[in-house]
Amino acid sequence: MAAGRGTASPEALERGRVVANHGRQVVVEDAAGRRIPCRLHGRKLAAVCGDEARWAYAHAGDDHGTVYALEPRRRTLERLTSGGHAEPIVANLTQLVVVVAPLPAPDWSIVDRYLAGAAWCGVAALIACNKAELGLPAVLATELDAYAAIGVATVHCSTRGAPGIEALATRLAGAVSVLVGQSGTGKSSLLNALAPEARAVTQEISAATDEGRHTTTHAVLHRLASGGDLIDSPGVRDYAPPLPAPRAVASGFVEIGQRAAGCRFQDCLHLSEPGCAVRSALAAGEIRPRRYDSYRRVVELAREFRERYPERRPR
Fold first, then answer.
1. Are 198 and 57 within one domain?
2. 276 and 205 inside one domain
């Protein structure tokens, strides 16, 4: 990168991580743990929380820095916009935590789509059953046992009594996580219990990045006492993951993806094709009908997306 007026030379750039973003303004945490408000250099540069950045002070004595470049993202959590675009919302995530609760009753098709979204972007998935103090209805227990049978881990937690949040905090240790789930499941309460300083930090960052004006920060990374990081973002809480090509949907449903290799045709969508190993497993009771129904719905959505936005077909 050539140095110019108001531009740092490459050798002067420091490494840091974007721990908050608000449009064209971000907060970068340096190697010493200091958090520096920064601006993005150039209109083409777009950062999200979790990005690894190269930054510097443009001039000696500045209280704001400038982000000049971003390192390649290892993983990107995206959401599907109303216009059919895949919009990045979190970078370098390692774990997606799907929060469910006895009340409101879970919409399992939404849970399945969250879990599929985690698989599609290559991150681990965890189900957190919150509000455990309300008891565990039989239907909820059955579903959680079924997820455990296909390898999806579950942890029980509560912010209002036993069993508390210790088990969840342990599962967040060493990971970069986000909480997703239906409204009313207690995601904000869990965040406040896991990171008690979250509200104060968010308000401080909002003031720093918006020069004192009171606005809501788009995303903030909070350090947890357990040693993990938890990213809070309005764009993540109720996000809809982008849809892959119809043939790739099965990769988000582990029990279906495992059996797809046995199908007669390589392009089998496991809907009505002859010689389908997935449908044979379904008939044999090896795949739960409810999970298969979720899979079928996502395939249909992927087909509709391909027809509606042919210029944006996923690779």
1. no
2. no
